[in-house]
Amino acid sequence: MNEATGGSNHLLCEKNTKGISIEGYLINISRLFWVAEEKRYVQNKTTPISKIMEESGFAQTSTYQYITDLEKAQLLCKIPIKKGGGVGLTEKGVAFLEEYRNNKKSQESNDSYETKISDIIDEYGDALSQLSAVYPHKKSLIIDYRDILKHNLDMGDDLMDNPDRIIELFEKDINARPLVFFYEGDTKIHVRFINIPQAYSEDIRNIVSKDINKFFNVKGMVTKSSDILPKICVGVFQCPICGGTKEVEQEKTGNLIVPSLCDVCKKPVKFKLLTKESIFMDIQRIEIQEPLEILKGGESAKKIEVWITDDLTGKIQVGNNIEITGALKLIPPKDINDTVYKKFVDANNFKIIGEEFTEIEISDDDVIKIKEFSKSPDLTQKFIKSICPAIYGYEEIKEAIILQLFGGSKISKIEETKTRSEIHILLIGDPGVAKSQILIGASNIAPKSIYLCGKGTTTAGLTASAKKEKDDFSEGGWVIEGGAVVFASGGILCLDEMNEMEDKDKDSLRSTMSEGLVSVAKAGVSVTFKAETSILAAANPKFGRFIQEKTISEQFGLSAAIIDRFDLIFPIKDNINKENDKRIYKQIGRTYTIEKNENSDYPANLAFMKKYIAYAKMNCNPSLSENALQMAQTYYLKLRGESNNNNVQTTPRKGVDILRLSSAAAKMRLSDFIEEKDVETAIRLTEYSLRCIAQDEESGKFDIDKITMGSKEKRNIIISISDILDNLTNKGKMNCNMEDVIKVAKEQGIDDDTVKKYLENAKKEGRIFEPTPGQIGVL
Length: 779
Known about the structure:
Elements: H1 22-28, E1 34-35, E2 40-41, H2 49-56, H3 60-72, E3 76-79, E4 86-89, H4 91-123, H5 125-134, E5 140-144, H6 145-151, H7 153-161, H8 163-175, E6 190-194, E7 201-202, E8 215-226, E9 229-238, E10 245-249, E11 272-273, E12 279-289, E13 303-309, E14 321-331, E15 342-352, H9 364-374, H10 379-386, H11 395-406, E16 411-412, E17 418-419, E18 425-429, H12 435-445, E19 449-453, H13 459-462, E20 464-468, E21 478-482, H14 484-487, E22 492-496, H15 503-507, H16 510-515, E23 517-522, E24 525-530, E25 534-539, H17 552-556, H18 560-563, E26 568-572, H19 578-593, H20 606-619, E27 623-624, H21 626-641, H22 652-668, E28 673-674, H23 676-693, H24 705-709, H25 712-728, E29 736-737, H26 738-747, H27 752-764, E30 768-769, E31 775-778
Parallel strand pairs: 5-6, 7-8, 13-15, 18-25, 18-26, 19-22, 22-25, 27-28
Antiparallel strand pairs: 1-2, 3-4, 8-12, 8-14, 8-21, 9-10, 9-11, 9-12, 12-13, 14-15, 16-17, 20-21, 23-24, 29-31, 30-31
Helix pairs in contact: 4-8, 6-7, 7-8, 10-11, 11-22, 21-23, 22-23, 25-26
């Protein structure tokens, strides 16, 4: 019983009566203050003293003595005669009896549960024996929630309402058993639960005060993780006077609890913490955010902190989609006057969800509609008309983006080598030609997407970062945090104004675009994340307008390595054409005058398109048929056969791009096989892109090198300058003066600005270096 109520342990005066405390006396007469209809104790409910005497069976003198003591303890108060006369419970008295009632109920349920829990654990005897044999490599016994329901339905409900108590009962039983351990240190087995019903699942944004100390499931993507750090769970303290020690169990969320009074010498002292004797537990903090698939419109993803402990630590990576089973806990504010608490989920267990788009609900009826829609003879046109319908034209670009949303087939065969399935597209051209609107439209249709503006975007925000900070989350350790390409893995990253990004930030995308991975290595911390993200980028030219004669590298500040990783590049030019301008403006006007459901340009709504794309990505991975392979191979070999050292029409990478686009076209049809018509689609879009950016004006043939190096004339100048450097440095064996390079180039008809620009680019790309000002060395 709670001694804080101020009881005096006053003894009864009557003969043959056992003495009880004043609290015990109040418990004996408690039913007099109970309102059965409301099922609660009521403050100030008038009870005559005569009824109290009748209920307790004690004489008037003893009764008045107890009532006086209960008044002093502030558990009872006198009620004036005009209000009925007698006594009533105070607020403190109500709280005391409620606490007693809850403790009694809890003890009764504990007693009834202990046998059931023992029976449940008996069924896990073999698993428990195996666990003790490998301890501490494994420290947890996994209990199926369904097994609890088989033995006791009430216990299953209590686990969800009061998880700490039920978990404590399970672990008390397990750790009291005479298990054989081969580990010599202290042992403690945890219990972790699986198969919690989805009815107990919560969205991150809906986890609020009602969920405090409740058990539930929550899904999310890991956006940030801390170091694994040791935390005291039982502190051992030593008295500096007598040397006596005292163990104090620590709270998970609070500061270190230090005793103030020695139990041996009974003196208030400043205790010393004995770290070697104390018991520590590994703890790691992670942050999860809502799955992008469930967001609507411009909603921002909500986040919540999760604490994982002991054997659960070190098993989760940033970028993982996980389902956490745990309870909501509170972190006390540092200022005792502050009434706002921080929250976190105390994880009991977790599982990593491998599949993407699990949050998109696709019913059996949806599957029927999706399969029926896939058989439409004008399937491609329906998709094209549904992406950015307010924007006139750009049909090839829209079709390419639709294929990008579906993505290619995932191929992983020989020695675990993997060919990327993600399609990357770059839109370049004049300002004001709807590039940004196309990106936003694609972001709205994609089941999983992130839209970013390049200006102000950093490498850390784009890919990933490792940093050491002294805050509540990291507690001075390393924090690994993912960026946009990690969060959008399995979906699409719409990157607007890519030209505004710093060169180092743009180059950080190289490994992501080619291998689908992001690596961070810093001060001994090395982490690799999955980033299977399709990139749809847009860029504006440096010179205000797109100039056909200048290279993409010159106009948009993109390196050759980045440009080469885009499957398709589409220049969009603002050409003045009266008829075309009229059609464009008419299309814009339609969005203001025609209701969406009356417009034939909306054959499929966005919600259905998202489900269709998600279904195709989860269920379709088409293989290449023999006829399709023969067609793609014939086309590739034809272009290669027409190529020479001065004019390369295609590369092996472009050949793979065609197969990737072909598989996306087959996936859009929900087909298991890539057919010839899919290859035709891929070739048509590839040729459209190459005609715009890589067609030689004289021969009419494709010239891949024109994309990054410009026309043949420009390439010949570059070769000439490179030869001059080789001659002056004896092929890198010695350094030369920059002025000599400019002088020799000028003699060959190459102007100073061209030479300086070449040298500047060569230095950026690491082909030359400047040992001293004005000196050049070749690497």
